[in-house]
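Posted in: Structural Biology > Protein-Ligand Complexes

Title: Requesting predicted complex, 3,4-dihydroxybenzoic acid in pocket

I'd be grateful if someone could produce the 3D structure tokens for the following input. Sequence and ligand are given below.
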Amino acid sequence: MERREQRGETSPAARAGIDERLAERWAAVDGYLAERLAPGEAALTAALEASAAAGLPAADVSPVQGALLELLARLCGARAILEIGTLAGYSTIWLARALPPDGCLVTLEADPRHAAVARDNLARAGLSAVVDVVEGPALETLPRLSGPFDLVFIDADKESTADYLALALERSRPGTLIVADNVVRGGALADAGSEDPRVVGMRRLVEAVAAEPRLVATGLQTVGVKGWDGMVLALVV
Ligand code: SAH
Ligand code: DHB
Ligand code: MG
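-- Reply #1 --
Done. Output follows.
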């Protein structure tokens, strides 16, 4: 059972009006794939356990999504990675696995409690030397970074995603990959009249990507343990 369900919260699938049996199949396939293709290492499981023990929300990417992030970082030969939204550092660890020994990852986190848990988790994963957890609201900390970054993973407050895209673009070079998480929101992305600020934020992101001639992009819907969601992937050309 998922952590949020153990705490008596409704599952993402139920909230999106998705049949629970279908959601169970999505989760079963995710589990099958993750067990074989995204086993990761002990530090990843330990990070999730420490996060739950500290009462942090279970908003980490899923194991197969984490493996996708590592794959993408390896595909772009990333040496410098920027992450916006650290939480417990679970996605951070997946991304950092792709880095060469002299690579670096900067991850931005507004909540000091989340940053503290993430620092512990990254230390346990042996990644303290390559990862810098920068505390503070990303709209304040990101403008201080110079870049250029080879890969940017945007996964913080959904309302600001388009602003993060603009700031990321200024710290990019041709070949930089920008990935945004939680774009589809149980299908709400297609609701032009949605008043959910996170949906409005993600529609703003898609419009901004569409209007940016420097980006070649797509949107990818995903189903699995996190219900129905998706990512936008945009390559700077
Ligand atoms: N990337 C993580 C999940 C991030 S959850 C993973 O997949 O493992 C989103 C995180 O963004 C939360 O920890 C939240 O505290 C943080 N956040 C929210 N608003 C923010 C802001 N304005 N600046 C930086 N971080 C923010
Ligand atoms: C939430 C945030 C995320 O980044 C995510 O992947 C899932 C959920 C959230 O804020 O609820
Ligand atoms: Mg996310």
